Amino acid sequence: MAQDLADVAKERGIRYFMISFTDLFGGQRAKLVPAQAIADMQKDGAGFAGFATWLDMTPAHPDLFAMPDPASVIQLPWKPDVAWVAADAVMDGKPVEQAPRVVLKKVVAAAAEHGLRMKSGVEPEFFLTTKDGQAISDEYDNASKPCYDQQALMRRFDVIAEICDHMLALGWGPYQNDHEDANGQFEMNWDFDDALATADKHSFFKFMIRALAERHGMRATFMP
């Protein structure tokens, strides 16, 4: 039986929930919902104009509703009175077939029909840039072959360690972090999991990286 999000809020001291779904371009869309209203949102979903996101829709389509999945709740380690929760897009009472999380759940279910359990892991890479995004954040990160550069990695220790500490606290099992093959590029790894859980963690990871980079006076991008 699914957890009652209102009870989760009381037990964990959560004041707000971010009900989030991912569009076709990987953009993360969310509504910030006070805990006092989460019971209705869990029942009916949070409303969105799908055409206003990168989904293949027009203004003629009805609103879609993001139905939060209680199994995906993650409290923000840097702001624990807020919780992020992944959601499934629904329209007219049916799953939105093009929504990435819906697609993945269908694939997982199809595999299960053949007695297979899908697990996956990711090796997310990202760049840390200046606030305006016009240059990498570390002017000294200019080696012609920068992969695994020890000095460049340690110059960004504060932000990398903070992210890794949060993943440790969340129980993700992070096990290594490194400077990657381009100037200003880093990679962080954590344990594999069921495919849907890994996808949800990766979505949250991208949000977390961007939020914490901003707190350190930088921007993070996953673009190559």
How would you characterize the overall build of this protein?
The chain has 224 residues and is of the alpha+beta class. The protein has two domains: 5-113, Ubiquitin-like (UB roll); 119-221, Glutamine synthetase/guanido kinase, catalytic domain (Creatine Kinase, Chain A, domain 2, 2-Layer Sandwich). 31% of the residues lie in helices and 29% in strands. The chain has six helices and 13 strands. It has helices at 5-12, 38-44, 100-113, 150-155, 157-170, 195-215; strands spanning 16-22, 28-34, 46-48, 64-68, 74-76, 79-91, 94-95, 119-120, 125-129, 174-179, 185-190, 193-194, 219-221. Strands 1, 2, 3, 4, 5, 6 and 7 form a seven-stranded mixed sheet that branches. The longest helix has 21 residues, at 195-215. It starts with a helix and ends with a strand.
Question: What topology does this entry show?
Answer:
Blueprint lengths: L4 H8 L3 E7 L5 E7 L3 H7 L1 E3 L15 E5 L5 E3 L2 E13 L2 E2 L4 H14 L5 E2 L4 E5 L20 H6 L1 H14 L3 E6 L5 E6 L2 E2 H21 L3 E3 L3
Parallel strand pairs: 1-6
Antiparallel strand pairs: 1-2, 3-4, 4-6, 5-6, 6-7, 8-12, 9-11, 9-13, 10-11
